[in-house]
Amino acid sequence: MSASKVAEWVKQRIRLKMGKPIPSHVNFFYCFGGISLFLILIQLVSGVFMLFFYTPEPDKALQSIAYLSNEVTMGWLFRNMHRWISSLLLATVFSHMVIVFYLKAYQSPRQFTWLTGVSQLLLVFLLVVTGIILPWDWRSYWSFAIWMDYLGTWTVGGETIKTAILDTFTLSAAYYTHILLIPLILAAFLFFHFKMVRRYGISKPL
What sign for the dihedral angle of Cα 140, 143, 148, 149? Predict the structure, then answer.
């Protein structure tokens, strides 16, 4: 089988899988959603790797990360990948939302697509916040303290939310929120988001 036939076979399978051709007006600025999904998958892989070495206990968390970074083969790579790509992911999701807003792609009939996208931005932000807490070093402690102080400044319900978090906070709770609760909610929003994108297609520029 020639290379051209192989390329045509792959192209047909991709076309069948996608179901819809890519519009001619799509350019790089339309790719931030796909880039964000790719970064989420990297975070998933690197996060699962780190699960085998991290210990969610205040007196062992930092030591387990040090062991991962210094003793485990390629551990430093997975740890730094997970750490720095989290910031890049937040930036790409935010950029995606700004571009969608600029293009007015949130208008009818794509309101639910927009709302699930905004929800995903908030969830990614919560993943970053809870991820910062997990090493439980001085940076984690003071980041947590700053966020609690910030919540306390909210006019409506701020002190109540702050008190509830402080009363129930443990490192294990932050850990399972980071690796289980938020990712499951994010996966549900992603599924619905892509269903909406598939249903209504990619918006055209105004």
Answer: positive
